[in-house]
Amino acid sequence: MREYEMVFIVRSDLDEEAFNEVLEKVKGWISEPGGQVTKVDLWGKRRLAYPIRKQTEGQYVLMNMNMSPAIGSDLERNLRFLDAVIRYLILAK
What we know:
The chain has 93 residues and is α+β, with helices and mostly antiparallel strands. The protein is built from two helices and four strands; from the N terminus they run βαββαβ. It has a four-stranded antiparallel beta sheet with strand order 2-3-1-4, with helices on one face. 17% of the residues are buried.
């Protein structure tokens, strides 16, 4: 298990319930195969530097986690196809 840090941007037009569903879905993708989420930090809604998919604002989330590298590749694939997530970045600590 390695330590990772992930920042992802969720569409700003989602209501609180839909936003929480996205968070739980991402946490599930990490914890189901054996990883664990150690910290979730909500940075709130911020203006994007440039429009992405016609969005000018996004809700930023920082997530610290412990997982194997194999989980990371599946997580990236799932995030790529989740429409609510505009951008993501996963870094090993």
